[in-house]
Amino acid sequence: xxxxxxxxxxxxxxxxxxxxxxxxxxxxxxxxxxxxxxxxxxxxxxxxxxxxxxxxxxxxxxxxxxxxxxxxxxxxxxxxxxxxxxxxxxxxxxxxxxxxxxxxxxxxxxxxxxxxxxxxxxxxxxxxxxxxxxxxxxxxxxxxxxxxxxxxxxxxxxxxxxxxxxxxxxxxxxxxxxxxxxxxxxxxxxxxxxxxxxxxxxxxxxxxxxxxxxxxxxxxxxxxxxxxxxxxxxxxxxxxxxxxxxxxxxxxxxxxxxxxxxxxxxxxxxxxxxxxxxxxxxxxxxxxxxxxxxxxxxxxxxxxxxxx
Length: 308
Prior knowledge:
Largest sheet: none
Number of helices: 13
Number of domains: 1
Distance between the termini: 29 Å
Oligomer: single chain
Number of strands: 0
Structural class: mainly alpha
Radius of gyration: 18 Å
Strand content: under 5%
Helix content: over 70%
Order of helices and strands: HHHHHHHHHHHHH
């Protein structure tokens, strides 16, 4: 097997592992608050990553500007993003989250156009409009005016959408950082740094709600999110990035929403409605239009491949 083919298989495997995070995350959130789930997840991940981070610390950013960007990446990608993502997942379901995740590519392109001055092409505009309609169908649940987001699934979907905005901002901010520093080392640093927020938030949530039962859902969910999606998933992602041109990775964008939806149906017995399925299809169609028009350099993922 060629090195390129092996790398593509590893990248596809990483996306499949991330797709499993929605059902395992939902299982953990059944009894634990989202802040405590994230505290558990990133504590496990940091415990594994810290020895590597310590050995490679001399390669971390030294300049003031890059250190501030690193802190911004931590706040956007592993604190703010994960707060909205898992708060939203606690109110919504794994199917909606899996389908909405694909919209991150659309949000990233939109932010790159707005803040990095990238040019937008005609078909990219069409892709953003089609994908935007799909997102609306999934979030609201159909072609109707929103009746408010006072609670429930619609609010959860909106929070997931906000998490994608932060994830896309994380990607835009991180472009210059990961081009000059080892990407996996940067990820290890910001995962570990996120504990500054997650330990106080997680313990406070447990203090308010009382210590919930340590169910198998929490144990398996915490281990899966910490070890599989954070450590193994990101290692596999960056391994593949070093060996495959970004343009060849576009089809991988569809693995998470498709596999994630299938797992939600098979494992959690979720039954997505017609509006959700049509909306998800429009999101994927919009992503296809946008990605097909991007130059290879523009389609390169930076420090993550979708929320997980």
